[in-house]
Amino acid sequence: xxxxxxxxxxxxxxxxxxxxxxxxxxxxxxxxxxxxxxxxxxxxxxxxxxxxxxxxxxxxxxxxxxxxxxxxxxxxxxxxxxxxxxxxxxxxxxxxxxxxxxxxxxxxxxxxxxxxxxxxxxxxxxxxxxxxxxxxxxxxxxxxxxxxxxxxxxxxxxxxxxxxxxxxxxxxxxxxxxxxxxxxxxxxxxxxxxxxxxxxxxxxxxxxxxxxxxxxxxxxxxxxxxxxxxxxxxxxxxxxxxxxxxxxxxxxxxxxxxxxxxxxxxxxxxxxxxxxxxxxxxx
Amino acid sequence: xxxxxxxxxxxxxxxxxxxxxxxxxxxxxxxxxxxxxxxxxxxxxxxxxxxxxxxxxxxxxxxxxxxxxxxxxxxxxxxxxxxxxxxxxxxxxxxxxxxxxxxxxxxxxxxxxxxxxxxxxxxxxxxxxxxxxxxxxxxxxxxxxxxxxxxxxxxxxxxxxxxxxxxxxxxxxxxxxxxxxxxxxxxxxxxxxxxxxxxxxxxxxxxxxxxxxxxxxxxxxxxxxxxxxxxxxxxxxxxxxxxxxxxxxxxxxxx
Lengths: 283, 255
Fold this sequence. Notes:
By secondary structure, chain A is an alpha/beta fold. Chain A is built from ten helices and nine strands. Chain A has a domain at 60-93 and 172-261: P-loop containing nucleotide triphosphate hydrolases (Rossmann fold).
């Protein structure tokens, strides 16, 4: 029997509007009506193009690809902090996201206050947070600093607390962006152990990493994302070599022969219009 | 929105507590500061308008208290809502939760401050006045309408300031002008007829006059007053909610 999908991504496109010379104030807006040079230039950038992906319950999926290929954007869409321009995303269960370094921390608050605030952000009842609190602090190894404002933490300490919060708030789906590149060697190992334990509990994990060794050790499947498109999905031994070959091609300057020329957003749109791509016509 | 607020009540409480902590951490007087600023205004305006400009109204400071506290609630909610989404950017960028909770928590925080200020100042008013007027029974109704009105303003200002950062300064200037165009330090009856239409366009005129009727004059506001307040509250919430819903999906991209 096939296990149900925990994350379903169906035909997702995400467009960002690059605002050159951005108009940020009403004053500039008024001045721009008189002076064309002050006007904002808008360009489209398609960060994700027709991405479809299914992560089954209990599966660990690694997301790899060069910088700027849309990995973080995809995770944000799954965490619902961004909305897709078109397409659909369905997630079953509570998502505990760890995007960038740290969860959502309020720098003026202490570590303890942030743990509670984060728990309630994820919709956990207070009593549940109280129960989980000791193990979070112990995991982050921050017993001596937990009543200090987070603004006085080192970036490593913030990252440790962030991972501890995301990993202990008992989510169904754990979404981690570069979570394995934080902290020192010992802490990284601890994070990997924690993720392995998660996997053993049958939870779903989706994570982005450039640490290919960790990816092949932890993942059931790997998705290679390049320039906003899914290039390959499959078991690590199949997909990781393709990424390595691609990186080698980029280094020797022949990547465009494999991927097609890298177009600027405007030219890419024109190219798509010529191909009759429906997304190129969205306003 | 209300079901969201209830479902995320721990988060609302957490955000309100955060604002309290961030505001008063490291200040010796703590919460007393929030009483000090209305007290200072009351003293200054009493000196300026009772003894220098000589506005002819009995027990001027009682008149002032009844209008200035609700005004302060409105003004500080509007000002702090312009910053509310920016201040909480790190949370909004990383976790999904109903976005309206942020400006709603700001209003709730200001509301808590108003209630605390009222519990300190109103007993003085009644002691000097000699008894609680029966019209105080209407106070919760007016307060509810004002909270709804303020919530609509806060929803709109919070998302619009993300798009136009100078809206914060415009809000501050606008509030200063609006303060003097609201019958707070003078009674509405002193306003010349020629200026009356301008006052009718100011939503705070309706609310402040109602508070003065109830707490100072000891009478029920006119039926027209209630109708005006209800209309302002409904319009403000509907418009604020529409603006918020329009901007909310792309909010994080602009933060």
